[in-house]
Amino acid sequence: MTQMNSIGLVELSSIAAGFQVADAMLKTSAVELLLSRSICSGKYMVLVGGDVAAVRASVDAGRNEAQGMVIDTFVIPNVHPDVFPAITGAANVQMLQALGIIESFSVASLIEAADAAAKTARVKLIEIRLAMALGGKAFVSLTGDVAAVRSAVDAGGAVCAARGLLVNKVVIPNPRKELLSEII
Length: 184
Description:
With 184 residues, the chain is of the alpha+beta class. It is built from six helices and eight strands.
């Protein structure tokens, strides 16, 4: 079993290149394929996990194989443990406190923002929704006390904003309970 303390992603503008890149990434180093799929608006994403060195080598190989089709990439060492269940929809949130949402134009910047938000304050990631039925955008929802959610949303939003990819960020201090069923 691969040690899973790091994740890496290559986001591409071509579906065909996505398959080629995924193959190159998996052949380069001992990583685990976490997600490899087409996403809205004709893009493709490859997400791998493993130890930091293997993930860096894999992402570098994918970037080199992509032949100009790369939209964005990242490697996150020591990824926050809430990121995995939020991506897969397995996060277990029963009650909303304050609700925070960060929205980005790219999958890569959003996952980095979610990791930064979770590492900044005591919040729980609810969901990371990646570009499906979103016109290629992505968003993360999170909950916690109001101050923690504000800090987390500001930190995550800053990650997207620094790359020019922030669409919006909001904090809702006392959300109606019906919103939880709309999120998950």
